[in-house]
Amino acid sequence: MATLVELASQRTALDEPTVDHLLRLTASWSLLSDLSFSDMLLMALVDDPTNHTDPNFVVLGQMRPNNRSTLINDDLVGTTQSPDAWPLVRLAFESGTRIVGQSRVESIDDVIPIWCVPVRFNGQIVAIMVRLQGPLRGPASLYEQAYLSIFERLCSMVADSTFPFREDSVAGPGLPRVGDGIILIDSKARVEFATPNATNAMHRLGIYAPAEGHTLRELGVRVRVVERSLEFSIPAMEEIDRGHDVAILFHCVPLIEHGLVTGVVTLLRDVSDLRQLNRLVLNKEAAVREVHHRVKNNLQTISSLLRLQARRSSEPETRIALGEAERRVRSIAVVHEVLSREPGEEVVFDEIVRSLVLLVEDTVLALHPVEIVVNGELGTLSTDLATPLAVALAELLTNAVEHAFTDFGGVKNDDVGVVTLNLYREDDNAVAEIRDNGRGLGADFSLEVPTSLGLSIVRDLIRAQLHGTIEMESVDYAKGGGTFVRVAVPMTARL
């Protein structure tokens, strides 16, 4: 389905600022639909160079009420409507005034009341907002009469181009709705009436005195957004708390007539349960962060113990083995350090890669100066993929830095060896390629029978745990020489 912007661009002569005004109207007009218990349509003139006498209308928007059943089951957005079928809309375009009457509408058997409200922008009639009123359940109650009175005042603002507001929408997702509760406040900040739901919300704040005729401050609660709306003629929102258990959201919509604020519609919503849920989520996140932080600290303690034990050992092979184990523990700690900052089921792997490169550069001693270059990124990965992949990459980078440039004449003592790590995604796989310009692999090398514990760990992690593939091969000297390693692991869920 085409959007309002697309329809306006393709079917009308409306310019960009006008379309933006209509977008803001459709972002807020669910308030109008609920206040009037009515379906709403937004119609604009079709730009047809061949028709200069009686142009058709295109429906740019449609809104159904939340507090009663709709009259129009079909989606009319994007449809072309004949002026003969909507004579009141044509009259509203021609006169520039609100037209109230009755008419027959396609797919509706009965004659229904219709309001046609001109939408004015920069002094021009740019569209018509059509209200299709359904039957009320018996005589209108006092609250329904108040709703309709507010709706009429907002219609006047639409015709004066003071509604919608430039600052913000007043009925978007997450904002209070008409059914949540309404308090109507006059120009002196006194309460004119409050709906039962609004009264219940006030009771939650500890206010039980009758509200009519008093300001909210006199009742014992100061709502600054009411004062702001009255003073600055803009919508505003504020959350009022009472202890840790009660939170009421106030959303104030000023009512403007001839440039002056004549009142404020205050929509209330009890968001106590939502705030409690948010606090629970925050507490859970804090607990998860603390767990990762403690795991990181424990791993660092183990790393320190391994390092101390290596220093006390007199056997070179033992020192080397303990040093390798210490580095592997630290590479796992790197993942938990990132998770301690942003807990969750996923982690930004590029932050881990930067830490791994620093880890390898700090802990590995090479006979030649070696530079590690990282290209590309893998973005966000699941934690069950990030941890083993980080360990594998740390092993491969360490292996390249330690062994690629030993007993090799291709890199002189004053040259810098280069290890390049390329990261990218390919067909739902996370791919890492490591390339060095060192001596390459031996003629009898086989990954199936690795000669080092590190390569055995890498092979088992990639193939058995991550269900991926790993390839290692020497590069021809004509192509730069060295060793090329390619790791590809699926990013889908693993059993």
Beta content comes to 25-35%
Give unreliable regions as ranges.
Answer: none
CATH fold-level assignment of the largest domain: Beta-Lactamase
According to CATH, the homologous superfamily of the largest domain is GAF domain
The helical percent reads 25-40%
Strand order of the largest sheet: 3-2-1-6-5-4
Largest sheet: 6 strands, antiparallel
Q: Strand tally, please?
A: 18
Number of helices: 13
What shape does the CA trace take?
elongated
Distance between the termini: 40 Å
How many distinct domains? Answer: 4
CATH class of the largest domain: Alpha Beta
Report the mean per-residue pLDDT as an integer. Answer: 83
Note the quaternary state here: single chain
Any guess at the CATH architecture of the largest domain?
Answer: 2-Layer Sandwich
Structural category is alpha+beta
Structure description:
Strand 10 (246-257) and strand 11 (260-270) form a beta hairpin. The longest helix has 41 residues, at 272-312. It contains 13 helices and 18 strands. Helix 10 (316-341) runs antiparallel to helix 11 (349-363), helix 10 (316-341) runs antiparallel to helix 12 and helix 12 (383-403) packs antiparallel against helix 13 (453-465). Strands 3-2-1-6-5-4 form a 6-stranded antiparallel beta sheet, sandwiched between helices. With 495 residues, it is α+β, with helices and mostly antiparallel strands. The chain is elongated and about 95 Å long. It has 4 domains: 4-159, GAF domain (Beta-Lactamase, 2-Layer Sandwich), CATH 3.30.450.280; 178-270, Beta-Lactamase, CATH 3.30.450.20; 276-344; 345-495, Histidine kinase-like ATPase, C-terminal domain (Heat Shock Protein 90). The mean pLDDT is 83. Helices cover 39% and strands 25% of the residues. The protein starts with a helix and ends in a 5-residue tail after the last strand.
